[in-house]
Amino acid sequence: MLPRLPYRIQIPLGLALAVTLSVLLVSVVAAQISARSARLEIVSTVQRVVDLLVAQGKPLLAQDDTWRAFTLLRNTAALLPQTGKGQSRAALLDTQGRFLAGSDPSRLPTGEQALGRLINGRLLPTVSDATRPRTLTSADGAMTRIEPIRSDDDQVIGYVFAEVDADAFAPDWAALSTPALIGAALAIVVLVPLGWLLGRRMARPIAQTADCIAQIGHADASQLQLLLPQVQDPELNRIAGAVRQLLIETSAAQANAQRALSAERLAAVGRITAAVAHEINNPLAGLITATRTLRLHGDVPETRERSLDLIERGLQQIRIMTTALLPQAKVEDRCMTPDDLDDVITLARATATQHFVTITSELDKRSDLCVPSTVFRQVMLNLLLNAIKAAGRAGKVHARLSTDALKVSFELLNTGSHLSQVDLQQRLHAEDRNDPHGFGLWICQEFAVRYGGGFSAASATLIPPAFATALTFWLPNLTRNDHQKPAAD
Q1: Of 103, 138, 169, which closes a domain?
Q2: Under a CB-based contact definition with an 8 Å cutoff, are residues 168 and 197 in contact?
Q3: What percent of the chain has pLDDT over 70?
Q4: Beta bridge partner(s), residue 409
Q5: Is residue 94 within 8 Å of residue 60, measured between CB atoms?
Q6: Residue 183 belongs to domain spanning
Q7: Quick check: is 429 in a domain?
């Protein structure tokens, strides 16, 4: 029901309730502390009485003077708490643990055995167990103190017995709660009117701010800003400032949307540029090496012809890839040949030489090749360069190209760390699909999906002992009329 009331009523009621609860809580804590302090004071008083009886009772026990012992106990026991109400008592015991004299003879009769017996509901220790001071407490809070009296030659000649019932420790809750109730009543009388005035003052700017918010979208934003209240309270000022900022952002929403659209377009262009740069840079190192070979050994006809063919096919790969980015461009590609595998190995040797990696290759041709050459060359070069980096210094890489009537597969093994299928999927699904360690792997996956092929990592049990990782990429072996058509767009 309280949340339905207006703020000018909720605030005074809330203040009164908070103060009342606070006063009651403080009173309860103070009462607990007072009760604990009172018990400690009673325990200290009992110990002082026991010490006094030990000092004064030694000569009386030595002389077996019962009457003077009664006089001592009557005067000393009066120091114990609530003795007049019969809630505490003291006694002197002889060496056998019997009552010699007691402040309350009816409850502590002379000559009756005390030690080792049940006295007033508490079992006292035996004579052999009472050679050192003992304090006994019961579940209801009552306390019994037994301390031996020793002669000058350190022999036990008797005992001091002091007992305090639980009622003597009970605090006076009525006396403790009266100040708390008076304080709560005074707080309510003072704070309710004060809270009423404060609630009206706080509710006024809040109502003005709510009216302004209700008109957003129906009135001019600059005019609504004039309706916002100017307040000194930091919290209310924050609310008004947030509404003012909301009005400013509403008026600039269209401009922000346009800027966001432009930024998204620039980001898309950046991603395309990164992909193109990645794929163009891959064959460049090999092409530069082929150019240097041609410059040094160009007079050898076989070397010159092979280098020129390599450069031509590499540049043709770059041309087809960049042409594919043009809108409405018709890209014509050729079928892949075994020479493309040699080209890719040659292009990758420059990077392998830098890392001192040994590359070997194998061709298992059981059928004619008929897959897009640019796509397959791009995949093979990506996997080779990644494998060289993964193999580490002085590592080994083995490439195997196999064909049959159904598919063309390219398997690549390296001696680096093992890359499982789970690890491969994590790299392929990295945020923005732009893992700096696996950008080429993501491109291979995209080609596999687009052309209806596959891309996977072999389990450790299926990899030859000399290697640690095996990646396999394959595409369907299509007819010459169909090899350019992707399986899915």
Answers
A1: 169
A2: no
A3: 78
A4: 402, 474
A5: no
A6: 173-251
A7: yes
